[in-house]
Amino acid sequence: MITSQYVVEYTKFAAKQASKLPKEIKEALVFWKESVERLGLPEVRKAKGYHDEPLKGNRRGQRSIKLNRSYRVIYEEHSAGELVIVGVQEVNKHDY
Q: For the chain, is the Cβ count within 10 Å smaller at the N or the C terminus?
């Protein structure tokens, strides 16, 4: 059985946003990243706490997860052979 390897990369914009996050949100982001790279995106999506969902409209093709009630991560998934690149586009405080 061949399994895909997952790599999480941040855009320059997302890395800048992540550097300004509160400590507990940074820790949650690192935990999600490490979980994706270790277990794979399909397994991490099963965790109900992240509320992983596809986005609509001009963000079609992107997905979001919640790090907590306020902060979310917007990402895209790209395949390159057996390598799956999860590109974090944005980390932001979601307005409700």
A: N
63: alpha, beta or left, given left = phi > 0 and alpha = psi -120 to 50?
A: beta
Q: How far, in Å, CA of 37 to CA of 85, rounded?
A: 10
Tell me the Cα Rg of the chain.
13
CA neighbor of 45 nearest in space, from 84, 16, 17: 84
| pLDDT tens digits in sequence order for the chain, 96 residues long | 446 799 999 999 999 999 999 999 999 999 999 999 999 999 999 998 999 999 999 999 999 999 998 999 999 999 877 788 899 999 988 765
Element (H, E) at 70: none
Q: Which CATH superfamily is domain 5-93 in?
A: RelE-like (3.30.2310.20)
The b-or-e profile of 55-79 (16+ CB within 10 A means b, else e) is: eeeeeeebbbbbbeeebbbbbeeee
